[in-house]
Amino acid sequence: MNARRASRVLLLAALSLAPALQAAVLPEDRADVLYHRYDGGGVTIDGPSVLVRKSFADKVSVSANYYVDMVSSASIDVVTTASPYTEKRTQKSLSLDYLRNKTTYSLGYIDSTESDYIAKTAFFSVSQDMFGDLTTISFGFRRGQNDVFRNIKDASGARIRDPAFQAESDTRSYSFSLTQVLTRDLVGTLAYELMSDEGYLNSPYRSIRYADATAPMGFLLDPERYPATRTSNAASARLKYFLPWRAALDGRYRFYSDTWGIRAHTGDLGYTQPLGGSWTFDARYRYYTQDAADFYRDLFPRRNTLNFQARDKELSTFTAHTIGIGASWEFRVQRLPWLQKGSVSARFDHMIVQYDDFRDITRGTSAGAEPLYELEANVLQLFVSAWF
Amino acid sequence: MRDNRLRRHARLLWLVTPVASLLGGCAPIEPWVKPYERERLADPIMAFERDPVSTAYIDHVFESREGARGGTGAAGGGCGCN
Amino acid sequence: MPYRPTTLRQTAPVARLARLVALALAAVPPLTLVTAEQAAAKVAANAPAPDFTLAARGGQHLSLSQYKGQVVMINFWATWCGPCRQEMPLLDAMYQKYKRMGFTLIGVNVEPDSKAAEEYLKKVPVTFPIAFDPDSSVSKLYAVQGMPSSVIIDRKGNARVIHKGYRPGDENVYLDHIRSLIRE
Question: Of A176, A158, A183, A141, which Cα lies nearest the Cα of A10?
Answer without folding.
Answer: A141
